[in-house]
Amino acid sequence: MTLNPKATLMDAQDLTRALTRIAHEIIERNKGTDGLALVGIHTRGVPIAERLAELIERFEGTRPLTGKLDITLYRDDLTEIALQPIVRKTEVPFDVSGMRIVLCDDVLYTGRTARAALDALVDMGRPGVIQYAVLVDRGHRELPIRADYVGKNVPTSRSEVIKVRLEETDGADGVELLELVDA
Amino acid sequence: MTRPANGSEAMSEPHHGGDRPTPRTVLRGARLIDARGDHGVHDLWLAGGSVEGVDLGGDAELEIDARGLLATPAFLDPHVHLRTPGQEEKEDLASGLAAAAAGGFGTVVSMANTDPVVDDPAIVADLVAQAAALGRARLRPAAALSLGLKGERLADYAALQAAGAVMITDDGIPVVDSHLQRRACEYVRELGLVIQTHSEDPSLRQGGVMHEGAVSHELGLPGNPAEAESIMIFRDCEVARMTGARVHIAHVSSERGMRVVEWFKAQGAPVTCEVTPHHLTLTDEAWRAFDPVIKVAPPLRTADDVAYLRDAVRRGVVDCLGSDHAPHTRAEKDRDALRAPFGLPNIEVAFPLLYTDLVLAGDLDLARLLELLQGGVARVMGWPEPTLAAGAPADVVLLDLDTEAAVDPAGFLSKAKFSPWEGRALRGWPSMTLVAGRVAFDRAHA
Amino acid sequence: MGAATPAAGSPPTKHPRHLLDLAGWTAEQVHALFDTSDVMAQVMTRTIKKVPALQGFTVGTLFFEDSTRTRLSFERAARAQSADVISFAAGGSSVSKGESLKDTLKTIDAMKSDLYVVRHPAAGAPLQLTRWTDAAIVNAGDGRRAHPTQALLDAYTFRTSFPGYAGFEGVELAIVGDVAHSRVARSNVELWTKLGARVRLCGPRTLLPDELGERPGVTLTHRVEEAVEGAHAVMALRLQTERMAGGLLPSLAEVRERYQVNRARMRLAHPDALVMHPGPMNRDVEIEGVLADDPRSVVERQVANGVPVRMAVLYTLLVGSR
């Protein structure tokens, strides 16, 4: 099996524009930054949360709190997998109780990551509101989960793969569509 | 009933294996080797339970093709545990004597640490009678040194001897009381019996399950130092010298122990000693696998000890081999290292193992190995030298020195179907054993 | 999310399937386990001290020798990750009647555990069990041989309590007391030397055979002052009073005088040296009572770290095992 590039879905500019729009939507929906915290899901959700926090600070003058969430211990497929995932540290350096939490991730697909993230968050306390922001929603949900903020909706087939690259983790910004083919 | 021409007391009781008459048998084209030398390839004729001669004429009732095989007197083993009476789940006479024959042994000396203990002439007589009817290897029981192996009171040695006992020993349990050991030696001396000792000082051995040394300290298993053996060997040899009784030191396992035996032998003390196949081939390193199959007493020692024992064998310090075949059930050996019993089954692999690891490895010549299994044992026991001369008992083993085969415990005739040498490719497998002129083991039909 | 991320670089070598001792584990794998322990320690600080990571797995505790504290620590570690736990105390009748280790295991194995935590009075018993089950085996102490999770939590406690030495380079550990009979000592020697530390073993000759000093990175001394001097951590081992009955030791007073870890002797150690004890402690025997409560003592931290370290062990051995 190999991955063949198929199309570029977003370039660096598109990506910034999408995040900027999401930042505005978060401010509007939450009526400012009061009690607002952005929590990124490892790995690429973490820089997305940081960038959104920076944009919101630029627009509102106040930087919302940020945190990092590792959902490995909450995955529902650990009994079945053959390769051990590395467990990373969760760093949510504030009490989540009563907060307006925006979970941030790069791609929304089956919804299982979001489910695990919700469980992980709820185990830390009792947030007032939890919202969900993703850069790309590619469909094929397996759970009743939807995002509150979406950078781009991309209808895909299951044989396709969405590759999000970010400056912080991959050296450059962009979203690509790849196709899984038998080599 | 047959009576060997040499008048051997030890080999003279009836050996039936059924009521049919002993067939006149010829072993065609075997290379004949015995204590007198290598006689080359001949037809060996057996009749009436004795060796009839070589290259004779006339009709044979049984023709055995022995071309390519070596024919030599069946081996003698001064030290086996047949677990009868009382522990037949481990071994019984039928399985144990069949296993002995499969190992090329025509005669074995069974130890007395059974349940009940062999300290009663009736038990000795019963063992002899039962074994004779089986037609496998001959059984010569040893009897206990102390009643019930309790180390307190002497057994009735003369009555035991009259019933057929050929050795006096508490093997398995060291005789702690030096006074008792002295009195036993004094009493047994006049009967001409040999006293065999399991020489380990229990107070120094403590709860040791393996040799005390670098490996035991690393693995955290309780150790049994070589000095527990050498100290007791010293006492046993000193009592032998003091009393003049013939004392045979069983299973010498350590360099220290062997040096003590040598020292006494040099002074002319009436002592002999044996080593086992496992002490000549395995070391305490085997414990790293934590399989209690190799748990034996005395324990497997270091590579240096093995080298020293082999050298002692070459130099003639060692009188004979004793297998110390000590079967247990698999379940008993599947206990943990502390609770598993001591002892391993080895009589079916003893010759191939030593032939492969010592003779083929260039450590020992074949004649010396055979001597350790034939004349060496006979001299310790006070029996006539086994030979293939006309008139000698027709106890013969045919050895296949060429075919290599892996040790397969599932095929053992012993009830103990496990082995530390499982899977080892060995040469020198006995292909047939005849006892009193009858086939006691035939690998082709095993 | 469905982004298939191709693995970057070569995957780290796979750790052994069982934790029988630390022989098959690399320093890198041990540090990875400690990193996971950090995450588990964080879980244990939260309101809800439980994650679903091991949901669907069953952990069996198989104790052929009593040890309530070790068993509870493992059971807590399993339940905090939502594993089911089956406890079997095998110290009772069936085993002492001579039932084989194999038969005992087969009975319990019929209940289908994914991993067994085994404590046994005989060295090697956990290794023997690996021959008769498909489940993973964690050695919770076998005879005098090994107690790997205790050594892991000891080293983890050091890593998290002694800033600047997390890499264990140049670290000197002193272990004082009944080394000969101690599985804790054997496992700590194995682990700390693997991580790059040096270990000094100290005790009377009867409890410290010369052969234990043959390992690289290990030195032996019969003088406690020599063992403690400049050490970054000093571990006192429990002294069992039966040793005196067994003729291995003279009076308690003499042992205390010559080998007790106390404040006076700790003055010779590194100024920030940690005082450790694997427990249970005989106060004022192998360790001076007040020293056990001293700020330098990390005895309670060792116990507390038992849970996250054992969580990491269970997680590491179970997840990705199929």
Number of strand segments of chain A: 8
Assign an overall shape of chain A.
globular
Low-confidence stretches of chain C: 1-11
Structural class given helices, strands, pairing of chain A? alpha/beta
Q: Helix count of chain A? A: 4
Present the secondary structure layout.
The complex is a heterotrimer of chains A (183), B (446) and C (322).
Chain A lengths: L1 E9 L1 H19 L5 E6 L3 H16 L4 E5 L30 E9 L3 H11 L6 E9 L11 E5 L6 E6 L1 H4 L3 E8 L2
Parallel strand pairs in A: 2-3, 2-4, 4-5, 5-6
Antiparallel strand pairs in A: 1-8, 7-8
Helix pairs in contact in A: 1-2
Chain B lengths: L24 E10 L2 E11 L2 E5 L7 E4 L4 E4 L1 E6 L12 H10 L2 E6 L10 H14 L3 E6 L13 H7 L3 E3 L8 H12 L4 E4 L4 H4 L4 E2 L2 H6 L3 E2 L1 H18 L3 E3 L5 H12 L4 E5 L1 H5 L21 H12 L5 E2 L8 H4 L16 H10 L6 H8 L1 H7 L14 E5 L4 E2 L18 E2 L2 E7 L2 E5 L4
Parallel strand pairs in B: 1-4, 1-5, 6-7, 7-8, 8-9, 9-10, 10-13, 11-12, 13-14, 14-15
Antiparallel strand pairs in B: 1-2, 2-3, 5-16, 16-19, 17-18, 19-20
Helix pairs in contact in B: 2-3, 4-7, 7-8
Chain C lengths: L26 H17 L14 E6 L4 H12 L4 E6 L3 H4 L4 H9 L5 E6 L4 H5 L6 E7 L5 H14 L10 E5 L6 H13 L2 E5 L15 E4 L2 H5 L4 E4 L5 H4 L6 H8 L3 H4 L7 E3 L12 H4 L6 H20 L4
Parallel strand pairs in C: 1-2, 1-3, 3-4, 5-6, 5-8, 6-7, 8-9
